[in-house]
Amino acid sequence: MKSPFLSFRVAVACCGLAAVLVPAVAAPSAPPPTTRAGQTELTPAAALQRLVEGNARFVAGQPWARDWARERSTTADGQFPFAVVLSCIDSRASSEIVFDQGLGEIFNARVAGNIVNDDVLGSMEFACQAAGAKLIVVVGHSACGAVKGAAAGVKLGNLTGLLERIQPAVAAARAKQPNLAPTDGAFVESATELNVREAMRQIRERSPVLRALLDAGKVRLVGGVHDLATGRVTFLAD
Predict the structure, then answer these.
(1) How many CA within 13 A on the CB side of residue 215?
(2) Domain of 134?
(3) CATH number of the domain enclosing 200
(4) How many domains does the chain have?
(5) Containing H/E element for 54?
(6) Which end of the chain has the lower number of beta carbons within 10 A, N or C?
């Protein structure tokens, strides 16, 4: 009579062998970095679609396979990014990863709370007017520590001045939801979205260079909020 234990061992061994014999499905290879011609031909709408599709790959856990050595070599003598992304310094919010982009594809401006200052505006002006980017994206994220700090009135060295730039969004969130405590998740979520919209407003109002490009339709400005748990970036309605 065959031992049940022996049958179990044989079944496990066979399953393991089958796993070895069935090859894993390789991820599709990423296309080469954007060229000057490709950047010139790309519309702002198409640039946004590239980020939407890249984020979908990130959410699904199916990023493109990248030949980093090739990308490094290809972009060493020049870059032609199609977008500039302003995001938070949060270690979980790297735009290249969240949007599944490689070297030479996006300019990435990062500062706590994705706030706008003169240096950020100057960087965006370079990205769009001088380097040809077609899209400006402001991305906040869930449970943002900078937004929470601003709501709590945190004072800490140079961080104090940075958090003051988030206060307009905090004040707007209080006016919108007066019954919520600043520590409430719904309040932080509301303030985060309002902070993104405030950054978008400042980009248009404080930079004549960018405003001219936006008004001419050469560049598009959009905002979004990145959910750290799912990875999904939800773009805000205009």
Answers:
(1) 9
(2) 28-235
(3) 3.40.1050.10
(4) 1
(5) helix 44-60
(6) N
